[in-house]
TrEMBL record:
Assigned keywords, A-Z: Glycosidase, Hydrolase, Signal
Record protein name field: beta-N-acetylhexosaminidase
Domain Glycoside hydrolase family 20 catalytic: 179-509
Family the entry assigns: Belongs to the glycosyl hydrolase 20 family.
Gene3D superfamilies: Chitobiase/beta-hexosaminidase domain 2-like, Glycosidases
The keyword Ubl conjugation belongs to this UniProt entry's keyword annotation: no
Residue ranges of every copy of the Beta-hexosaminidase bacterial type N-terminal domain listed in the record: 27-173
Secretion signal, residue range per the UniProt entry: 1-20
Enzyme class: hydrolase
Native organism: Pycnoporus cinnabarinus (Cinnabar-red polypore)
Amino acid sequence: MAFPTSALLLLLTACSGVFAGGLEPQIPSVASFKPSNGAFELAPIVQIVVDIKYAARGTPSLLDFAGTFRDDLQAVVPYVALAPVLESPFVPDITFGIPTIYLTLDTAHEYKLFNGKPTDEGYNIQVSKSSVTITGSAPLGVWWGTRTLLQQAALQLGQGKKKVSFPAGSISDSPGWEVRGFMLDAGRHWFEASFIGDLCIYASFFKINELHLHASDNLWNPAFLYGEGNEGWKHLYAAFRFQPPPGSPIEGLVPRKNESWTKQDFAAMQTTCAKHGVTIMPEIDTPGHSLVINQWKPELMENGAPDHLNLSYPETIPTIKSIWDQFLPWFSASEVSIGADEYDASLANDYISFVNEMSSYIASKAGKSIRIWGTNEPSKTMSVSKDITIQHWDFPGDDIPVQLLKKGYRVINSEQFFLYLDGKTSEDNQFPQELNQDLIWAGAPGGKGWAPNIFSPTDPTNNTTPDDPNLRGSIFALWNDWGNNATTALEIYYQLARSIAVFGEKAWAGSDVRQTQLTRAQFDAAYPLLNAAAPGQNLNRVVKSVHGNIVLDLPGAYTSLKTLIPSVGPPYTLSFSVKPDSKAASTGLLFSGADSKLHVANLTFEATGQLYALGYVLPTNKFTSVSVHATREYTYAIINGDKANPHYWYTLMDIWGDYMALGNMSFAAPTAQIGGDGFRGTIKDIKLTLGG
């Protein structure tokens, strides 16, 4: 095997040793591990080698995945200095004394899902004293193998070990189900493309392979939508997130261009996700949930239901096809979702005809199949095509999933009882803030825990077996029913972070098939370490402190100052004193950062495009001391040391147009710049410490 002379001079010999404990329990658990003698120790210099025969195979290619793996390994194990990735013929165990991680393919090997169908996502890892070889039947399987290796390293370092050792032996692993995803409601809450890319990177660490992107929808206010003579529907928040180019015949569909993704935005987001093994599954929801389309073209509206399309109107279906014509070339996924839930049951035949026509149209236009949300549309003469995957979400709102499976429909489990979250709150606390751990671990019949084959917590006849040939897998969902102002993007991440990890275990390994599945105690021990170590993103907004828990300590007086710290995640305490000039007491910024801003006026936080006023007016020409305390659940201020009267930042949410609800807000500390945007005054004694 040929190595550059410079690399040879830098590479060190791997140390041998005994790894007594075997593999650390990780998320998701691996299917099998057969130990042998010795260990592969990650020395200060390690080489990653890609089998040149397969380096260009796939999109992303094996070489692409190797490059990302190299960056991630450097991030997870800081003491390692990695030489550039090499392409070379693969010769097992020939390392010339150099610690080497090989990535290669065995295209003849067949990995299988629980139902016996082949999968490209399985992998083997062979560990000897001198090398680690990760083999898959396709590049994606090798990628998941690199996640296993990274997690083992992160768990060891997180437990205080100074060096990482992989126990010698062989790992064989593959997922139980094809679809392992999470859904993000971006139709009712705006998210930057960079944030969605970071979510993909984080989810990939736990072997999640899909992000279902619900990209069009509206708030639901029955009085505005269905009140007789009420035209409030014209102004009710509704959004379509894909931005057509200027001059497009459907340009008017996007009323909020600053809250939509251009083709370039989406391509970058899609590429980032794909580079980490995650496919974006785009959804444009019709013929229900279509208010944004009817606000653009009211003539398409079903009489008395502004959020429904009139499918019998001659221009409706051609208009929907024109929307897909614009955006289908954007999407790299082999499937798309047309939504198709909660439509008028009295128009069942119209609905079924529409769904089948769109399935045929999208297949002929782009070679893609479609998914729909499960909706029981009662028709005695028509049925939805079996070419369509049905995403079950509700009993009894759609067909019973076990009956659909028996009829030959392919089904994805998104049963709301187990798998629904709602941003910040839900009506009568129907849905938890994160996936309910009691339900996930022991809430299914028999107490074995939830898995994608479990649809009902109480009725075993409504569940199927893990090897059901038509059960494709599962997607859990985070909805944003209360819109943009209910949460910040980072608060959405806080809801998703642990949920993604526990879902990753259950969607990959199940609950009662493999002997190696995690216990709840093992998961609880591993998760904090893996959440902190997940590479490629910094959604926790972690920063290094300069001394102890101090991030900033600026005792001087300032009118404007830039720092090298874009944002700091909670928990933190940000304290300062401020004296606005009388001429500009209500304008300008005290602090600004990547995720939030703190305005002088009413001590107003700004995040995700929304304003949240504390309602405190700073006096002019005198200093006021302010101490901002934040956790992931709330943010409050202590003014002039008055701890008995904390001031909380709240949001006011409209719950289904029925009542208003207060919610606490959590903000990242805005630390990129002190002062600015016209601020005139003095800020002094600035200190930011970690801990709320």
